[in-house]
Design brief:
This protein is of the alpha+beta class and 175 residues long. 18% of the residues lie in helices and 48% in strands. The longest helix has 24 residues.
């Protein structure tokens, strides 16, 4: 599977460069570009956390350093120069999950972002949940029909980046 990405990466980078150069030549004073979001889609299957989550395993801790920041770039005209401005819009993390054999699962995700209000979205197969504020509590019990193979966590950021993110994640069999 990695071979396919290695062959496609140069083509996608060239395509992205072409799109950016065409929009730069268009002469617009402000054009919205989203290379961070394009990069997220491009590398979604490549970058994951170092340690997978095992169902009925241990309590997993993740911090801000485990997440990938996602930026939106735009350009502003300052006299004769175009200045690129990046704005942080999200933090994302994808973690492999092992052990979903169709049993009923308990999803417990708890954490905080130290006084910085954000929206947390969590998904794994057919499991989807969210919470917002600066303290996060997601607790759900459901069967995912063996679809929970990759936990995706995302924080929507508005304004300045949070000084701290700390989450604990547990996926266990219902008893």
């Amino acid at each position: 599977m990695m071979k396919n990405y290695n062959r496609l990466l140069p083509l996608l980078v060239c395509g992205l460069a072409l799109v950016l150069s065409v929009s730069a030549r268009a002469g617009s004073c402000c054009s919205a570009q989203t290379p961070g979001l394009m990069q997220e889609a491009l590398f979604a299957g490549i970058e994951t956390a170092a340690e997978p989550i095992y169902i009925d395993g241990v309590l997993y801790q993740v911090t801000e350093s485990d997440f990938t920041p996602i930026y939106i770039s735009h350009y502003i005209q300052a006299g004769r120069e175009r200045i690129r401005v990046e704005r942080l819009v999200a933090y994302t993390l994808t973690i492999p999950v092992y052990g979903d054999i169709g049993q009923e699962l308990i999803f417990d995700i708890n954490g905080r972002s130290d006084g910085h209000n954000m929206n947390l979205t969590a998904s794994c197969g057919t499991f989807n949940a969210s919470d917002s504020g600066d303290k996060y509590v997601i607790s759900s019990r459901m069967t995912t029909a063996q679809s929970c193979t990759s936990m995706k966590l995302s924080f929507a950021v508005s304004g300045s980046p949070p000084p701290f993110i700390d989450l604990s994640i547990l996926i266990a069999e219902a008893f």
